[in-house]
C-alpha cells in the first residue's frame, strides 16, 4: 500500500460504490462445492457475453477457484441477507443448510434468487491481492424479485418500502398504482372514463387477490415493482405510484380491460386523469434520458426529487 493511502479510508471510499450482492458457486471435478459472497461482480461484454468477479487470493477456496472450469453467479434478492452472511463465513460447510439445484453446467444454483448466470471459466487473471475470474455466460434466467443492495458496508433493502406501505391500514382515500412495463409495452387499464394505470387500495402480495400485485397476477402478470415513482394528491385521494417490470406467468388470455400498449403509441390524450397523463409523459421522458426521480406533490404542481437535487 502506498504510504499516501490510508487503507481504512480507502476501504470507506471504495464502499461508497453501491452494488448488488451475489453468491458465486462452483462444483469441482471431485464433487467439492465452493461458494462465496461477492459484490465485485460486474458485466464486461455482451458479445461475447463475459462477466467478472474478484476473489481474494487469501480465500480458503482459492486453489479450487483457480482450477475449476465453471461457476454460477447467483444474484441475491432482498430477502436473502442471511445467505449473503452465510456464504461470507469461513470454515463452515456452506451448502449443508442451503437449498440449491445443479445448473446445466453443473454449478449449484441457489433457490429464490433474483437472477443467475451459468458460466464457463473463460480466464483467471491474478491481479494484486485478488484473482479476477472471467466467466462466459452459457445460460441465465431472471425474475422480478427485488435485489439486495450493499453500500458503505451495509445492506440496502429496496423491498422495505413495499412492506412499509402494506403495514399501513387500508384506507379508502389511498390509491396504490403502478407504471408497469412488459417487453417494451405498458400495462394500461381501459375504463369507461378513459385509460388508467393499474391500481388498487393496497399493493399486497401476489397470492392475496385484494391488492394490486394479486390483481395483476390474476390477469397473468408477475410484476416486480421495487421503485417508488410518484406520491401525489388528486382531490381527496392520495396516490402512491410504483414503477417496475412484469413478466407473463402464463400465456396471455385475451383481456379487454388490461392492455399491453406500445410505449411509442400510448393514448396520452385519452387518459382518464390528467395527473396520470402528465405522469406518463414524465415516465417516457425519464426513460429516454435514463434519469429517475420521485414526483411529490399534487395533480397540478409538484417537485421531482432526484438525487442530483433537480426539480420540475
Ligand atoms: C457483501 C459482501 C461482499 C463480498 N464481496 C467479496 C468479493 O467481491 N470478493 C471476495 O473475495 N470476497 C468478498 N467478500 C468476502 C467473502 O465472501 C468471504 O471472505 C468468504 O469467506 C470467502 O470464501 P472462502 O474464504 O470460504 O473461500 C464479501 C463479503 C460480503 C459480506
Overview of the molecule:
With 312 residues, the protein is α+β, with helices and mostly antiparallel strands. It folds into 2 domains: 7-157, Roll (Pnp Oxidase, Chain A), CATH 2.30.110.10; 160-305, Nucleoside Triphosphate Pyrophosphohydrolase, CATH 3.90.79.10. 17% of the residues lie in helices and 42% in strands. The protein has 6 helices and 21 strands. It has helices at 7-14, 62-67, 81-87, 160-167, 212-218, 274-289; strands spanning 19-20, 22-27, 33-38, 42-45, 50-56, 70-75, 100-102, 108-110, 115-127, 130-142, 148-151, 154-157, 174-182, 185-191, 194-196, 199-200, 221-234, 237-248, 258-262, 294-298, 302-305. Strands 13, 14, 15, 16, 17, 18, 19, 20 and 21 form a 9-stranded mixed sheet that branches. It has a 7-stranded antiparallel sheet with strand order 3-2-6-9-10-5-4. Strand 4 (42-45) and strand 5 form a beta hairpin. The radius of gyration is 23 Å and the shape is elongated. The protein starts with 6 loop residues before the first helix and ends in a 7-residue tail after the last strand.
SSE topology:
Layout: H1 7-14, E1 19-20, E2 22-27, E3 33-38, E4 42-45, E5 50-56, H2 62-67, E6 70-75, H3 81-87, E7 100-102, E8 108-110, E9 115-127, E10 130-142, E11 148-151, E12 154-157, H4 160-167, E13 174-182, E14 185-191, E15 194-196, E16 199-200, H5 212-218, E17 221-234, E18 237-248, E19 258-262, H6 274-289, E20 294-298, E21 302-305
The protein binds flavin mononucleotide.
Amino acid at each position: 500500500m502506498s504510504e499516501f493511502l490510508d487503507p481504512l479510508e480507502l476501504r470507506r471510499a471504495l464502499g461508497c460504490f453501491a452494488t448488488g450482492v451475489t453468491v458465486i458457486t462452483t462444483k469441482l471435478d471431485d464433487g467439492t462445492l465452493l461458494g462465496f459472497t461477492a459484490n465485485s461482480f460486474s458485466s464486461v461484454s455482451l458479445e461475447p457475453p463475459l462477466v467478472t468477479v474478484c476473489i481474494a487470493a487469501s480465500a480458503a477456496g482459492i486453489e479450487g477457484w483457480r482450477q475449476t472450469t465453471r461457476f454460477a453467479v447467483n444474484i441475491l434478492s432482498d430477502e436473502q441477507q442471511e445467505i449473503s452472511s452465510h456464504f461470507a463465513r469461513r470454515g463452515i460447510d456452506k451448502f449443508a443448510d442451503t437449498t440449491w439445484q445443479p445448473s446445466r453446467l453443473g454449478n449449484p444454483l441457489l433457490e429464490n434468487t433474483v437472477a443467475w448466470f451459468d458460466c464457463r471459466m473463460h480466464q483467471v487473471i491474478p491481479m494484486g491481492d485478488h484473482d479476477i475470474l472471467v466467466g462466459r455466460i452459457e445460460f441465465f434466467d431472471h425474475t422480478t424479485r427485488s435485489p439486495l443492495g450493499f453500500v458503505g458496508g451495509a445492506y440496502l433493502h429496496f423491498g422495505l418500502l413495499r412492506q412499509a406501505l402494506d403495514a399501513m391500514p387500508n384506507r379508502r382515500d389511498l390509491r396504490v398504482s403502478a407504471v408497469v412495463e412488459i417487453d417494451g409495452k405498458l400495462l394500461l387499464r381501459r375504463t369507461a372514463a378513459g385509460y388508467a394505470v393499474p391500481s388498487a387500495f393496497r399493493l399486497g402480495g401476489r397470492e392475496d387477490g385484494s391488492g394490486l400485485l394479486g390483481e395483476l397476477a390474476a390477469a397473468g402478470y408477475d410484476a416486480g415493482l421495487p421503485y417508488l415513482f410518484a406520491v401525489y394528491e388528486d382531490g381527496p385521494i392520495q396516490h402512491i405510484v410504483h414503477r417496475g417490470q412484469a413478466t407473463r406467468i402464463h400465456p396471455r388470455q385475451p383481456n379487454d380491460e388490461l392492455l399491453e400498449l406500445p410505449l411509442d403509441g400510448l393514448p396520452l390524450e385519452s387518459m382518464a386523469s390528467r395527473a396520470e397523463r402528465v405522469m406518463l409523459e414524465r415516465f417516457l421522458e425519464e426513460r429516454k434520458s435514463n434519469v429517475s426521480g420521485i414526483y411529490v406533490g399534487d395533480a397540478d404542481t409538484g417537485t421531482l426529487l432526484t438525487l442530483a437535487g433537480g426539480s420540475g
